[in-house]
Amino acid sequence: MSEVLLDVKGLKKYFTTKRGLLHAVDDVTFTIEKGKTLGVVGESGCGKSTTGRAILRLLEPTGGQVLFEGEDVAKLNAAQLRAKRKEMQIIFQDPFSSLNPRRTVSQTIEEPLKLHNVYPNEQERTQKVLEIMETVGLAERYVNTYPHELDGGRRQRIGIARALALDPKFIVCDEPVSALDVSIQAQILNLMGEIQEQRGLTYMFITHDLSVVNHFSDDIAVMYLGRLIEKAPSEVLFSNPVHPYTQALLSAIPIPKVGGKKDRILLKGEITSPINPEPICRFANRCQYATDRCRSEEPQLREIESGHFVACFLTE
Amino acid sequence: MSEKKYSVEIKDLCVEFKTDAGVVKALNDMELEIEEGKTLGLVGETGAGKTTTGLSILRLIPSPPGVITKGTIKLNGQNIFDISEAEMQKLRGKAVSMIFQDPMTSLNPVITVEEQIAEVIELHEDVNHAGAIQRAKEMLELVGIPGERGPEYPHQFSGGMKQRVVIAIALACSPALLIADEPTTALDVTIQAQVLEMMKGLKEKYKTSMMMITHDLGIVAEICDDVSVVYGGHVIEHGSLEDVFNYTRHPYTEGLFRSLPDLDNRTAKLRPIKGLMPDPTNLPEGCVFYPRCDYAMEICKTVKPKRVYRNETHYVECHLYDEQSVKDGGKIGK
User: Fold this and answer.
1) To the nearest whole angstrom, how far is the Cα of A185 from the nearest Cα of chain B?
2) Could you tell me which residues are beta bridge partners of residue B109?
3) For A266, which of B160, B197, B246 is closest by C-beta distance?
4) How many CB atoms lie within 10 A of CB B233?
5) Chain B contact for A24, CB < 8 A?
6) pLDDT given for residue B1 in this prediction
7) d(CA A59, CA B53)
8) Are B277 and B46 in contact, with CB atoms under 8 Å apart?
9) What is the number of other CB atoms lying within 10 angstroms of the CB of residue B279?
10) Residue B214 phi, psi dihedral angles, 5° rounding
């Protein structure tokens, strides 16, 4: 087995709301190996973005450990964390609201370089900005343009360039292509793949688009209501999904082929509230196989075969 | 072909928006028709003119800045540009209605959902308020929401349920034609699956004609009978679902398919279409797609391609094909 870059253990993020404690991320455990991509999928509100942010400490975790190359990110003080951020970056979902409208392309990309004082010499810094722009396929003539002058695909390239500026080892990609048209989406996915290959980057790729995640990830983790319910290598997850929710999720993908439709598992009902959840299976009320045990006890993540983890009583 | 009845026929429709940055040519000789009881998928990317086409059918293009400069739209044989606004009002919701993309913003937040559904019914049918409310509750049941939730407000519903309320409003007076503008884009996949199943059921039950505006070829494969691919406000390829998906001719349509990750072959490299959508204020003179086309030739830069038919219904507008090559799929000069 190759080297583990990120080891997340029992990560928790709770939010206090008027109606009680919202368990956005609840006891999530996984690892990502160096140079690999972990896809994290799930529906809105399942905690996938919160997980990404808690790992980078853009949100303070409520509990758990985030071991980055063996060092617990959750325990770093402000100065240490700041230094660590050089190695872990994020690409945001919305290329429209995640860029400062008053900064030009070069100002945005240069910001992290200035903050960390990596290229004190202005000329070198400008050179570096141009280099990164070339890497992400932004023509030099855009150097002084503002985000509003550019389309979604180019804006997302700025977001990627900003994340790459400090030569990080790890990038959380939070739905980086969801806001883009398919033809542009494919351009960006290819670009991210190439950059990963060149630099040996490790990605955590958060998305709700299952065909994209299948294409892009080595391993996939499925989340439901703050819990990680299944994790496996991509081809295993798609050929042999075990958790009933994963099965329903995969069967819901519309296939762009004539007669490509499989038998679909239609879920009844909607996601239950993540506020003060009871210690039972959170999927039980929508699950066609649910038993009394599922409604009285919470299943834990177990390894059912090498690298394939599931949290469901059916596998016992 | 003359015995076929069409719910809607659009011919040579041109729509422009006059903006400070110039004249946006949203639709350029748009042409489409939907046979009664059939579902047409209108496929294309942001800015292709899909929503403008839908709004045109309802005569809801905001004016100013929108101007319809040319063309006709016939709803059940009647040209909607020949009738008064009052007459048009009677058609909206009854002859044709639309499901808008975003369920979060298309409902009125301060009116209960049953009142919002009842409004359409009262407007079009001879019922009193109590009767309309009763019908509204039935509509809610039809889309899978318990009738007793009628007196609740939109914020009390989840996204999927809100979209079902929007669908209930659109279907309240059993319209002959339903325009669905990306009805599931804002929804999660499992909820999307529920809504699609429901729409399929309703289509079978009421024989509603449908125009499905979407960028998702998976949804098209699932629900549509025919497909029109739109680029730069113009249909560049049209045919039955099987023809367009299995005998794809236009390089743009081809590019759309190649941009999608293949679930059965996860390591296959994506082959995106190069470049970007054209600037609608400054469309290329010849073929609108030529700057992005891998097969572009000299002629493409200056001459608009003519329509070539592969069979009675499947056509493509591209210089790569003539009468013969369009049938066997060979591209001229390639």
Assistant:
1) 8
2) none
3) B197
4) 27
5) no
6) 44
7) 44
8) yes
9) 15
10) -160, 160
Nearest CA to A106 out of A135, A147, A167 is that of: A147
Which residues are CB-contacts of B80 (< 8 A; sequence separation ≥ 6)? B57, B59, B73, B74, B88, B91
What element of type H or E holds A28? strand A20-33
Tokens at B96, concatenated: 């044709």
Distance in angstroms (rounded) separating the CA atoms of residues B60 and B52: 9
Residues 6+ apart with CB under 8 A from B142: B168, B171, B202
Check: CB of residue A88 under 8 Å from CB of residue A68.
yes
Cis amide leading into B64 (omega within 30): yes
Which chain A residues touch B199 with a CB distance below 8 Å?
none
- Distance separating alpha carbons of residues B196 and B199, to the nearest angstrom: 5
The closest alpha carbon to A229, from A38, A79, A26, belongs to A26
Cβ separation B189–A253 shorter than 8 A? yes
ipTM of the complex: 0.80
Q: In angstroms, how far is CA A130 from the centroid of its own chain?
A: 28
**Cβ neighbourhood burial of A314 (10 Å; 0-12, 13-18, 19+):** middle
Cα–Cα–Cα angle for B135, B136, B138, rounded to 5 degrees: 65
Alpha carbon distance B256, A41 (integer Å): 24
Would you tell me the crossing angle of helices A152-164 and A105-115 to the nearest 10 degrees? 20
Q: Is B217 in contact with A215 (Cβ distance < 8 A)?
A: no
| CA separation for the pair A101, A4 (Å, rounded) | 38
CB-based contact, B151 to chain A, within 8 Å: no
User: Nearest to residue A236, comparing CAs of A252, A217, A253, A208?
Assistant: A217
Using one digit for the tens of pLDDT, what is the confidence trace for B86-110?
A: 999 989 988 899 998 877 788 999 9
Question: Using one digit for the tens of pLDDT, what is the confidence trace for A166-183?
Answer: 999 999 999 898 878 888
Express each pLDDT in A242-298 by its tens digit: 999 999 999 988 888 887 666 788 887 667 788 888 889 999 988 999 999 999 999
A306 and chain B in contact, CB less than 8 A: no
